[in-house]
Amino acid sequence: MPANPSPPPLAWHERLQWRMLGAHGLVILLSALVPAFTFYFSVERWLERTLLDELESMVALVAPAVEERLRGPEESVSALLEYIEREAGLRATVIDDDGSVIADSRPAPPGGWAPHATRPEVASALARGEGRAVRYSESVGESMSYVTRLLDVGGERFVLRLAKPRRSVAEQLSGLRWAFGVALLLALVLGVAMSWWWSRRLTAPLDAMHRVAREWAAGRYDVPLPPPPAGEPSVLHQALQALRVQVGEQFALLEDETRLLLTIVGAMNEGLIVVDATGRVILINPRALELLGVAQTWTSDAVEGRLLLEVTRLTKLSELMERTIREAAPQREDVQTTRSARWLGVSSAPLREGEGVRGAVLALYDLTQVRQLERVRQDFVANVSHELRTPIAAIAGWAETLTGGGVDLPPFVHDKLVVMLSHARRLGALVDDLLVLARLESVGIEEAYVDVDWDEVIDEALGALAEVIDDKGMKVRVQVAPEVATWHTEARAVEYIVRNLLENALKYTPAGGNVWLDVGPAAVPAWVRLEVRDDGPGIAAKHLPRIFERFYRVDKGRARQVGGTGLGLSIVKHFVTALHGKIEVQSEVGRGAAFVVLLPEARGALPSEDSEDNATSP
Question: Which of 37, 109, 414, 533 is the most buried (most CB within 10 A)?
């Protein structure tokens, strides 16, 4: 079994193990980060509250001493505030009722202290007696925590404010962040390692089965499956094992059928060619190479993949193949090879795939012997007919002379001579028809195309048949459309077609009957439609397929009464075919018959089947 190209391996990020590892790592990371950040921010808020509570305690502790100093000189207040910052590390500020700074533990800036009435912690103390705030201080340039308390000294209101930088909280949190980072990293590493181990344990059997499946996809079905894993992957293992057995059986059966098919194709007496939609050979048997005369040049394997025209050098065969694929319909044509001088009958059919056509199948039959025998038959008929013309003409001439009244004969002899003359004339007509038919089959028509006037052709035919029309009291109605009154075609062929169809209708229509002859445009442009119909006895459906065969008679007894050679309709069909036309007959018993002829102008192309159906519909 030929190996198929192996499918490409999966990229690392497409493999189940890494996708599981990524998912597990993300879950572990989120599971660690969310609690860590929650705890961190909780500790941060707790430290801030603790700091504010400490500041409130310090405010309550130093407030009486500040009130006492406010009753004395201002320098004593500043000294106390400086002492508080120096000993407790807290910035202390005293602000009066209008927001002016009375004293501060730090030196005033060059421009003096800005009013503090709008500071949130000061405004809160003035309004409610105490206040808290955590904000960025413009004066010191860092974030501070503030606690304030309203003091009442001799009826005057003052605000005592203690502040501490928030960097103390940040310093305490920095150690906590480091501990959290190390713990989070350790948890992530440990979790990822465990996840990798677990995903590897879970996906290892799947990876092994995947590698085996890729080998099978490449056509290497001898690669065994690994031992069955535990758990859910065992179900996949069982399914793959069953698939391997089933596919192996199917491929073995396919190989057997392929070998059988190739054996049959190789042993066929007919040639077989299969091509794709581009005209390249997919399959060809040795008999086809032999019939085409290229067996010494090509082998079946060497031909595959090459253009059919390159191998055969037969344009007609290549055109037949292209027409089959283009029209998606079967075709039939005889082709003569250039190398082996054989005549081949070629039948083709489209190779369908869904709604489209993927190629064509061509069957080749050797017609060389049949053509040779046909040529021998034609020559024999032509030679015999030619040799019979002279004695038949002599017999007819003497019988006509003796029965012409110039010789006194007994009645018995006269009657026999009349019968002899009738049969001689009939035999002469048969010989003439055989010669016409032999000439058509051997050399075809003369192809002397001229402008033919339909009225003249029909009048000439009616004149030749006037005696029959008058004797039987027939009525012949003729209608020629003005747009096709003149037609460029072969005159002798058209004259024979019109006269024979009229003669045939007059012979088989009872006395007093009617015959119609209509000439008009066909449904296909550049085609003419000739129809001859009668109201005679008609033709049974079983006879219609053979009506144009040589010597075929629907009613042999009646045929002998009306005369005729049995070759007229066969000659008509040969003329129509030689003109690249088409003839059909439509009839029902008791309702007459209609012969419809379609002829192209100046060798026009054959119409499609749909067009022919439209053109030949009564």
Answer: 533
Which residues share a beta bridge with 26? none
Helix (H) or strand (E) holding 49: helix 16-70
CA 290 from chain centre, in angstroms, equals: 37
Percentage, residues of the chain above pLDDT 70: 78
Is the pLDDT confidence value at 614 over 50?
no
Report whether pLDDT(225) > 80: no
CA-to-CA distance for 438 and 375, rounded, in angstroms?
Answer: 10
pLDDT at res. 445: 59
Span 41-74, pLDDT tens digits: 777 788 788 878 888 888 888 888 888 888 877 7
Structure tokens belonging to residue 219: 């056509």
Burial environment of residue 231 by CB neighbours within 10 A (0 to 12, 13 to 18, 19 or more)? exposed
Scanning the structure block, which residue is given the tokens 């581009």?
Answer: 278
Helices (H) and strands (E) in the chain, counts: 17, 17
pTM value is: 0.43
> How would you classify the pairing of strands 514-521 and 475-480?
parallel
Average pLDDT over residues 411-437: 66
Single-letter residue type at 23? A
Phi, psi of 85 (to 5 degrees): -70, -35
**Quick one: which of 550, 551, 552, 555 has its CA closest to 540?**
555
Alpha carbons 489 and 606: distance in angstroms, whole number: 15
Beta-carbon neighbour count of residue 530 at 10 Å?
Answer: 26
Report which of 603, 174, 600, 602 is spatially closest to residue 615, judged by C-alpha positions: 600
